[in-house]
């Protein structure tokens, strides 16, 4: 019998090993087929890069995303991305349904997205103000999809790939080995088309072109300053020339939507044009000249000859900041050069008659995986911070700032170039106008400080441009909010002699035309948010093909970029009820322990007790952090729960078998070792559960068959076969169906608690009551059970008789 059992174990382990080898061989075959698939090369395109088989997973956090890197060179007119996704079926169970695969592509940094629907924290920079994220959705059905980007800017482009997010609370809990084992993979390549006919010119010497050579493309390099370029273009032989469209763009060829300047002119009327624009410092600029018929929707190029809006850049200073590295991933600061090793905060003096910019560099690869924080504040007088006291003049309360100046600072943020801060709180860069990053107002105590956070900052040179605007109106200064806010009321100033209500008089103050202030500026980068995740998660790193990014892994119930969003968290009472269901349902094992003891199954009773203890404390530890209680590490409790659960099935099947105590003890020991190995190998695998159960059922049926063939009678009482055993099998069947097929994340606490209860109660009907003498009630102890001397439990087994002891 032992030999048969050992052979069965060896065969089972060999079968598992053969199955793993078969799955690995199948995967290699599919990957080899993908590798041998010829990439379709397009005419006139150059294949830059490709990735054959990228694993794609369901989005749960940035831990589960795959990252793809695409390098794009200069002078590219079309970048064509090709994607093909399909499912690898790694077992012979069921079939694989195509998944909805999402690809987010962005230049210069990883796309900062929230596929799970959480909002970004309030201090985060508006994603709409950053570079566009191209989003492509495909199905993993093996079909090719392409996405084209016209005239892309050169540099490193990054793609995030993941299966579209689904609410985990509605997903089914699937048991390994019972459902199809599917793996989504992605093939991708990048092919680019370059413009070879681009003539190199000097940005500062202008261009002379014959009308017969139009259309034409040119490029030139700008100097390292923010001064405007006055570009002269002269068109010759204009007798048969049509209207001309002139476009300029930095870094890439211009398009209808992406350009610095677009204007049109008629060379027959004026063949010499001077077009002024603000360049990107030390960058290639592309100039496109082409004929056009309808010029109604374009500005006249003569309007760019004399531009009053950029005359203000004459007094423009650019300062380079010092980098202060902290020696950790994505952790650094920038500030004005200083000998202070503790703080890199910058104090920048600004006046109303100048524009001042500071610039710093975010390096590719090593800096883009963190979060960049920019903080700015106006440095006010000491009395400003000590209760907002105000000055009294002629009975009028005046809000004050440093030396009674009223002003506001407008701060712009740009990458690769500077822009001009406007008094309206906007920033202008050539023809583009956008909201300013910060508007700091000295007359409002709530807006002297602002902060923004940029997740995954773009690589490149960043510019922070500040400009000070004075209060040039004559006004009485109204107050509100108990004097904590101060406003300028220009309309009231026109009503001389009007008696202002309350604490105000008709006193007026002359406005200022020149003012100055000190700007406090802090620029820093950290992993996650200050290296933390709102105390509700862990700051981790995701590495993929040498690319590294930081992200927050949130505790149960929390979400969002920094784990601060608890909008989907269950109430504390709900979580407490759930953990009580999962833990207290194990108390039904007391019934199993009681029945095992009164029927003299002491080994089995101990196994049920260990199962109850480990399952109870594992589920108490696996609960949400708000209600969790761990007596030791969770992985230890999890191992004990799975191991003792499978062992309970094993010892119960052996107890039902008709075998001797010595053979049963041997089987129990062998099972303990094999089950420990299987649980360590993969406790979630269906094989780890079914292999011991299948062997146990085989031993059970074989022992019953051999016993019946030998005795021609059933080993147990008739009622066991007609009532107890069928009811026990029915309970186990219902429990297994609940465990394997009915569990979802939402009903897990209920279905799994039912599983605990059913398995605990099934033991009552499965353990045969054959060790006791007579025919007592199977659910009650025998009449003399408690009369057994306690010392007999620990008594030595009787020694076998020897020839020397025989008389």
UniProtKB/TrEMBL annotation:
Disulfide bonds join 554-563. Pfam families: DUF3522. The keyword Acetylation does not apply. Its main location: membrane. It comes from the Eukaryota. It is a multi-pass membrane protein. The keyword Hydrolase does not apply. This is EGF-like domain-containing protein. It comes from Pectinophora gossypiella. The lineage of its organism: Eukaryota, Metazoa, Ecdysozoa, Arthropoda, Hexapoda.
């Amino acid at each position: 019998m032992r030999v048969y059992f050992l052979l069965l174990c060896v065969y089972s382990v060999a079968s598992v090993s053969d199955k793993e080898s078969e799955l690995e061989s199948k995967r290699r075959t599919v990957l080899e087929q993908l590798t041998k698939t010829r990439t379709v090369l397009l005419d006139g395109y150059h294949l830059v890069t490709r990735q054959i088989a990228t694993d794609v997973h369901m989005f749960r956090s940035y831990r589960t995303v795959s990252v793809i890197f695409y390098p794009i060179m200069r002078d590219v007119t079309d970048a064509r991305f090709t994607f093909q996704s399909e499912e690898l079926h790694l077992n012979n169970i069921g079939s694989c349904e195509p998944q909805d695969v999402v690809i987010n592509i962005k230049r210069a940094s990883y796309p900062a997205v929230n596929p799970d629907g959480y909002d970004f924290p309030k201090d985060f920079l508006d994603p709409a103000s950053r570079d566009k994220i191209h989003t492509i959705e495909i199905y993993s059905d093996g079909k090719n999809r392409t996405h084209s980007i016209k005239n892309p800017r050169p540099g490193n482009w990054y793609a995030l790939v993941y299966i579209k997010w689904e609410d985990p609370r509605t997903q089914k809990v699937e048991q390994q080995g019972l459902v199809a084992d599917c793996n989504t993979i992605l093939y991708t390549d990048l092919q680019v088309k370059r413009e070879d006919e681009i003539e190199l010119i000097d940005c500062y010497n202008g261009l002379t072109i014959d009308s017969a050579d139009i259309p034409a493309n040119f490029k030139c390099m700008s100097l390292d300053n923010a001064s405007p370029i006055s570009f002269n273009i002269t068109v010759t032989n204009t007798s048969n020339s049509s209207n001309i469209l002139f476009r300029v763009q930095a870094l890439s060829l211009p398009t209808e939507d992406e350009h610095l300047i677009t204007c049109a002119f008629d060379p027959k009327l004026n063949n010499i044009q001077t077009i002024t624009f603000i360049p990107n410092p030390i960058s290639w600029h592309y100039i496109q000249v082409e004929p056009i018929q309808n010029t109604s929707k374009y500005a006249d190029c003569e309007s760019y000859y004399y531009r009053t809006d950029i005359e203000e850049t004459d007094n423009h200073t650019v300062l380079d900041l010092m980098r202060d590295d902290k020696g950790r991933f994505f952790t650094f600061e920038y500030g004005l050069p200083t000998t202070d090793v503790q703080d890199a905060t910058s104090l920048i003096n600004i006046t109303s008659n100048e524009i001042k910019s500071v610039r710093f560099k975010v390096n590719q690869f090593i800096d883009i995986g963190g979060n960049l924080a920019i903080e700015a504040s106006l440095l006010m007088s000491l009395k400003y911070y000590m209760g907002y006291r105000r000055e009294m003049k002629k009975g009028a309360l005046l809000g004050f700032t440093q030396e009674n100046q009223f002003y506001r600072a407008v701060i712009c943020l740009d990458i690769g170039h500077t822009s001009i801060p406007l008094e309206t709180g906007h920033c202008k860069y050539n023809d583009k106008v956008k909201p300013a990053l910060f508007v700091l107002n000295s007359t409002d105590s709530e807006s002297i400080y602002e902060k923004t956070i940029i997740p995954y900052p773009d690589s490149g040179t960043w510019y922070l441009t500040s400009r000070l605007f004075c209060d040039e109106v004559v006004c009485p200064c109204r107050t509100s909010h108990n004097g904590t806010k101060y406003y300028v009321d220009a309309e009231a100033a026109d009503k001389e002699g009007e008696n202002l209500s309350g604490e105000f008089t008709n006193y007026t103050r002359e406005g200022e035309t020149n003012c100055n202030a000190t700007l406090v500026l802090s620029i820093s980068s950290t992993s996650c948010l200050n290296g933390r995740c709102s105390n509700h998660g862990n700051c981790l790193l995701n590495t993929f093909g040498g690319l590294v990014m930081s992200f927050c892994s949130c505790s149960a119930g929390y979400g969002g970029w920094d784990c601060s969003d608890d909008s989907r968290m269950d109430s504390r009472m709900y979580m407490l009820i759930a953990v009580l269901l999962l833990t207290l349902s194990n108390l039904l094992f007391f019934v199993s322990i009681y029945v095992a003891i009164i029927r003299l199954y002491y080994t089995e009773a101990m196994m049920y007790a260990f199962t109850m203890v480990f399952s109870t404390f594992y589920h108490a530890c696996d609960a949400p952090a708000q209600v969790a209680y761990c007596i030791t590490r969770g992985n230890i409790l999890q191992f004990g729960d799975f191991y003792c659960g499978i062992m309970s099935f094993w010892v119960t099947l052996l107890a039902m078998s008709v075998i001797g105590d010595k053979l049963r003890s041997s089987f129990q020991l062998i099972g303990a070792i094999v089950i420990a190995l299987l649980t360590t190998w993969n406790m979630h695998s269906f094989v780890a559960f079914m292999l011991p159960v299948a062997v146990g059922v085989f031993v059970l049926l074989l022992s019953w068959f051999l016993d019946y063939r030998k005795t021609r009678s059933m080993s147990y009482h008739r009622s066991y076969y007609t009532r107890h055993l069928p009811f026990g099998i029915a309970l186990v069947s219902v429990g297994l169906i609940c465990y394997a097929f009915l569990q979802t994340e939402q009903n897990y606490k209920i279905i799994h608690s039912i599983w605990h209860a059913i398995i605990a109660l099934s033991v009552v009907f499965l353990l045969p009551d054959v060790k006791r003498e007579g025919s007592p009630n199977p659910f009650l102890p025998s009449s003399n059970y408690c009369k057994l001397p306690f010392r007999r439990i620990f008594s030595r087994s009787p020694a076998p008789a020897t020839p020397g002891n025989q008389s």
